[in-house]
Amino acid sequence: MALETEEAVNRAIDEMPEDYVIYPFLVEHRSEVQMGFLTGISEEELKELFMEDGRKDMLSEQIGKKIAKGKTLETIADELEVTTDEIRDIYDKLCKEESVL
Prior knowledge:
By secondary structure, the chain is an all-alpha fold. The protein is built from six helices and no strands.
């Protein structure tokens, strides 16, 4: 049964049009989606995972724009109304990427 479910999830993702909004998330989190089906994760829990992932993406985008404008970690945190600890990893990663460019 588990193998059939795993194959069904893989097939559904592989056959999904790439322009669907959720496609990149499903490809990136394929194993989590499979586990959700295998463990019976609730629709609400799955929605929360999607929302959290979307929130992180949006936060990264906003932080990247503010770094490009030369803003500091503290200023960015203040403007986004989050703590520096909440965004430090994203900030550090994006700063390294920007210095490589």
